[in-house]
Every structure is written in structure tokens, then in C-alpha cells.
């Protein structure tokens, strides 16, 4: 029996062409789709982290107790409330679980005219490896704080709040499909009202407002490290 008719039918049969084309293109289409989904999630997350940094800087510039006729005072409770609020705002991102927040008070350096200093700094977040990359409490003689092209300085006789939010990104699928595994967003705001920046560190353990922050009974300061000085040095 001749096999030629069967071979001709197989040669001319095109019913499986579409299936073969789909099989060959599926890996490419799937990779593009997953990459698109990962990049979209990354961009949305980065935008949310950026907005948290901006809102935190704005809120830090607004806190304080007092009337319009007096300089407003800030306390450790005010700062802790700011950080707790940022964590609540982050929702399912769980900012303080997956990241680190640093708030710095940029004030004029009294010993170096025209320069700034980081008067006080407070932090919260489980990812202690993601600490601030733009200075620490007590740094002085600074031209500004922040990236070289976006540095902020203290206004004359005023205060600027500088916030850095560092976040460990959790990918939807795979880290290699997203630009980076860490996000670093910064924001700053000038304090619009007069702020009480007086310091009584010279009283030692009896001080009530070292570095310009009033103590509150039962409230622990959110220090950035175990060795961070509490009193002015």
C-alpha cells in the first residue's frame, strides 16, 4: 500500500499551525505581561511611598502646641504620633514593618554662619539596615541635607523638616522584573509657625526639653540608634 497519499495529506494539513504559533509565542507574551504587571505595581508602590514622605514632612512642619502669639512647642508624643500615622497611611504596605522612616530637624548652625545642622533626628521601622543616608543627629557645618542636586538648608531663624522614607519592596512575581528591591524617597517642608527651639540640656537628667523637644511622661523617644545622644552636645 502506497504511503504517498497519507504523506501528502500530512504535508497539506494546516489545522495545527495556529496552535504551534501560540505555543512558540506564549513564553514571550507571558514574560511581557508579567513584566508589565510587575512594573505597574512597582510604580504605584513607589508613588505611594513618595506621597507618604511628602505628607509626613508636611505634618512634621505643622505639629506643635501653642497660640499664634507664642512659639509652638513640640513633644516626643507629637513625633511618635507622626510616625504611627505614616504607618497607618501606608495600609497593606506596612511601612514600619518593611521599611525605615527618619525625621530630621534642620536648623541654623550657631557656630558656623550660613551653615545648617541636624539638631535632632527620630526614626522608626524594623528595617534598621535602611537607616538614613543623609546625615545623623548632631551633624554640623552643613551646606545642606539631601542629594547633592536637591539639598535643603535651614532658613534664617527657622526650621526645615527633612524626611527620608526607605522601603523594602516586595515584588508580585520576581525581583528581577522590577528596577530595584529598595525605594528611597525624601521630602522637606519649612516650619511655617514659630517653633520653640530652646534647649535645657545643661540640666542633665532634669532637662524637660533637650534639643527643643519636650519630654512626655511614659513616652519613649524614637531614637535612631542605641548610642544616639539624647542631650545636646
Give a description of the structure.
- This protein is α+β, with helices and mostly antiparallel strands and 233 residues long.
- The chain has one domain.
- It contains four helices and six strands, in the order ααβααβββββ.
- The protein has a four-stranded antiparallel β-sheet with strand order 3-2-4-5. Strands 1-6 form a two-stranded parallel sheet.
- β2 (99-108) and β3 form a beta hairpin.
- The longest helix has 46 residues, at 17-62.
- The protein is elongated.
- The protein starts with a helix and ends in a 19-residue tail after the last strand.
Low-confidence stretches: none
Average pLDDT value? Answer: 88
Query: What Rg is obtained from the alpha carbons, in whole angstroms?
Result: 28 Å
Percentage of residues in strands: 15-25%
Largest sheet: 4 strands, antiparallel
User: Structural class, please?
Assistant: alpha+beta
Query: What assembly state would you assign to the polypeptide chains in this entry?
Result: single chain
Estimated helix fraction: 25-40%
Strand order in space, largest sheet: 3-2-4-5
Q: Work out the number of β strands.
A: 6
General shape: elongated
- H/E element order: HHEHHEEEEE
Distance between the termini: 103 Å
Number of helices: 4
What's the number of domains? Answer: 1
Protein name: Flp pilus assembly protein TadG
What can be said about this structure in brief?
The chain is built from four helices and six strands, in the order ααβααβββββ. It is α+β, with helices and mostly antiparallel strands and about 230 residues long.
Layout: helices, strands, pairs:
Blueprint: H1 4-12, H2 17-62, E1 74-75, H3 76-90, H4 95-98, E2 99-108, E3 116-124, E4 160-168, E5 182-190, E6 213-214
Parallel strand pairs: 1-6
Antiparallel strand pairs: 2-3, 2-4, 4-5
Protein name: Flp pilus assembly protein TadG
Amino acid at each position: 500500500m502506497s504511503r504517498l497519499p497519507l504523506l501528502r495529506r500530512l504535508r497539506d494539513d494546516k489545522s495545527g499551525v495556529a496552535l504551534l504559533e501560540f505555543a512558540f509565542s506564549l513564553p514571550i507574551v507571558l514574560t511581557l505581561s508579567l513584566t508589565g504587571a510587575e512594573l505597574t505595581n512597582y510604580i504605584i508602590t513607589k508613588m505611594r511611598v513618595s506621597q507618604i514622605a511628602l505628607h509626613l514632612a508636611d505634618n512634621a512642619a505643622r505639629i506643635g502646641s501653642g497660640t499664634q502669639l507664642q512659639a509652638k512647642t513640640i513633644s516626643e508624643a507629637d513625633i511618635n504620633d507622626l510616625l504611627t500615622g505614616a504607618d497607618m497611611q501606608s495600609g497593606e504596605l506596612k511601612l514600619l514593618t518593611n521599611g525605615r522612616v527618619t525625621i530630621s530637624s534642620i536648623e541654623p548652625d550657631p557656630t558656623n554662619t550660613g551653615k545648617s545642622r541636624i539638631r535632632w533626628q527620630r526614626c522608626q521601622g524594623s528595617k534598621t539596615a535602611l537607616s538614613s543616608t543623609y546625615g545623623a543627629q548632631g551633624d554640623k557645618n552643613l551646606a545642606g541635607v539631601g542629594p547633592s542636586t536637591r539639598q535643603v538648608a535651614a532658613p534664617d531663624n527657622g526650621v526645615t523638616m527633612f524626611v527620608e522614607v526607605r522601603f523594602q519592596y516586595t515584588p508580585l512575581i520576581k525581583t528581577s522584573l522590577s528596577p530595584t528591591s529598595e525605594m528611597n524617597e525624601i521630602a522637606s517642608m519649612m516650619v511655617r509657625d514659630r517653633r520653640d527651639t530652646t534647649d535645657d540640656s545643661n540640666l542633665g537628667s532634669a532637662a524637660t526639653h533637650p534639643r527643643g523637644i519636650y519630654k512626655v511622661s511614659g513616652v519613649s523617644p524614637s531614637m535612631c540608634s542605641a548610642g544616639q545622644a539624647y542631650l545636646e552636645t
